[in-house]
Specification:
Elements lengths: L6 E2 L6 H26 L7 H23 L4 E4 L2 E4 L3 E6 L7 E7 L6 H9 L9 E2 L5
Antiparallel strand pairs: 1-6, 2-3, 4-5
Helix pairs in contact: 1-2, 1-3, 2-3
Length: about 140
C-alpha cells in the first residue's frame, strides 16, 4: 500500500497530542511510502534466509534515515561551516484551495525520537490517536 490509499484522520485538538500525532503521521508516511515500497520489490523467489537478509537491510536503511531525522547523524562540518539535513513534518489545512494554511510544523529532530519509535512503527503501532482512517468507498 502507499499513503494515497489512506485518508488522514482528524488531528487531536490538544497541542501535545497533536505533536505526537504529527510524529506518528510522519513515520506512517515513511513506512508506507519507503519501507513497504522497498519490501514490495523484493524478489518473491528468494530463499527464506536471503529474503530475511534483504528485509533486514531495508529496515537498517530506514533506521539510518531515522537517525538523520533525529539529528544523530546527517551533517557535514568543515572549519566554521556546517551542512545538515532537517526533516520537517507539516500539518496543513487545505480548505479554501488553492491556498494552504500551515497549522503546525515540526522538525523531526525536535520530536520525541524517530529512532525510539522505529520498532513500534515497524510492527504497525502508530500511536493511540489514529493517523489514518478508512477511506470511504469509491
Amino acid at each position: 500500500m502507499s499513503t494515497d490509499e489512506h485518508e488522514l484522520a482528524p488531528a487531536p485538538a490538544d497541542s501535545r497530542a497533536r505533536e505526537l500525532w504529527l510524529q506518528h503521521a510522519a513515520a506512517f508516511i515513511l513506512f508506507e511510502d519507503v519501507r513497504l515500497y522497498a519490501l514490495a520489490r523484493v524478489d518473491p523467489n528468494l530463499e527464506p534466509a536471503a529474503r530475511a537478509a534483504v528485509e533486514k537491510g531495508i529496515d537498517d536503511a530506514i533506521y539510518g534515515l531515522m537517525m538523520v531525522a533525529d539529528g544523530v547523524t546527517g551533517s557535514l562540518v568543515g572549519g566554521p561551516d556546517r551542512v545538515e539535513l532537517n526533516i520537517l513534518a507539516r500539518y496543513l489545512r487545505t480548505e479554501g484551495v488553492p491556498r494552504e494554511d500551515v497549522v503546525e510544523t515540526l522538525s523531526l529532530a525536535d520530536g520525541d525520537g524517530m529512532c525510539m519509535g522505529f520498532h513500534g512503527w515497524r510492527d504497525g503501532d502508530f500511536g493511540e490517536v489514529p493517523v489514518v482512517k478508512a477511506r470511504p468507498s469509491r
